[in-house]
Write a structure and sequence with these properties.
The chain is mainly α. It has one domain. 80% of the residues lie in helices and 0% in strands. The longest helix is centred in the last third of the chain and has 57 residues.
């Protein structure tokens, strides 16, 4: 029981911590996007005669973005959410990797196991911290516990160590993958919202062209601006989401590989050194 409590204490102190409720992040980003849209982009100073219903001033990019319509703050919300969650995942996954080089840590653990120096391996875990160190610590404690158990056969002991390794890994991985599904969703959603804004803008442009009594130049230009601005923002949001998702997925894959490598070494060490 004491060993189990110690494992729980180690996991509690080194556990990867991230944003638990991404919903509040999305709400916060939406509020910020609305404020930016109305007070910054929609500032009357950005338009002819200080009227947001008129053309933007020549070369005024903020007023041009405002003409993208109400789809703009929605896409901005998605964009800000990707940025916020990407920053959050950066610190969370950085914490999961620990304080030093993960490659050197794994090599050090394997060397300590080959020498049969479990204390050295534990010292490396305490120094490294992070998810890999948490898993190795839990497995090493189980290793020491099983080693003293005279009632189990060798195969049962190996199975028990492997089970502890799998359980410790299963506890760590969800924390590293947290919020990544939201970024993956925005990968598609950002592009679709950009496409929606494009379609709405084109509808407005054709409506201006087909209106009786000549072409409404303001409505026509507003429709074209809406189409182009939303296309640009949608592509930007989707691109950043793809880059962020693939980057952090690759990071997690590297960490998972290290977990598998060091876990295999622990199990094999026990299997080869005990009868």
């Amino acid at each position: 029981m004491e060993a189990i409590q110690n494992v729980k204490q180690v996991k509690a102190t080194n556990k990867v911590v991230g944003i638990q409720s991404a919903g509040w992040v999305i709400i916060g980003c939406f509020v910020i996007a609305i404020c930016i849209y109305h007070f910054l982009l929609g500032n009357p100073a950005n338009f002819v005669n200080n009227d947001p219903n008129n053309h933007p001033l020549p070369g005024n990019f903020l007023g041009t973005i405002y003409k993208g319509g109400m789809v703009v703050p929605i896409i901005q919300t998605l964009l800000f959410t990707v940025i916020a969650l990407s920053i959050e995942r950066y610190f969370a996954i950085r914490s999961a990797f620990g304080k030093g080089s993960l490659v050197k840590f794994v090599a050090g653990i394997k060397a300590a196991l080959s020498a049969g120096d479990m204390e050295k391996a534990q010292e490396l875990c305490d120094k490294q911290g992070g998810s890999v160190a948490n898993v190795v610590t839990a497995t090493l404690r189980k290793y020491a516990e099983i080693e003293k158990d005279k009632t189990l056969l060798k195969d049962q002991k190996v199975l028990a160590i492997q089970k502890e390794l799998d359980e410790a890994t299963a506890l760590e991985l969800p924390m590293m993958e947290q919020n990544l599904p939201i970024i993956a969703t925005i990968t598609t959603l950002g592009t679709l919202m950009g496409l929606l804004g494009t379609v709405i803008g084109m509808i407005r442009s054709f409506a201006a062209l087909s209106s009786g009594g000549g072409t409404d130049s303001i409505a026509l230009s507003q429709g074209i601006s809406e189409a182009l601005i939303n296309t640009a923002f949608g592509i930007l949001t989707g691109a950043l989401a793809v880059i962020s998702y693939n980057y952090y997925t690759n990071k997690i894959d590297k960490l998972t590989y290290s977990l598998d490598e060091v876990g295999f070494s622990i199990v094999q060490t026990f299997a080869t050194t005990h009868k």
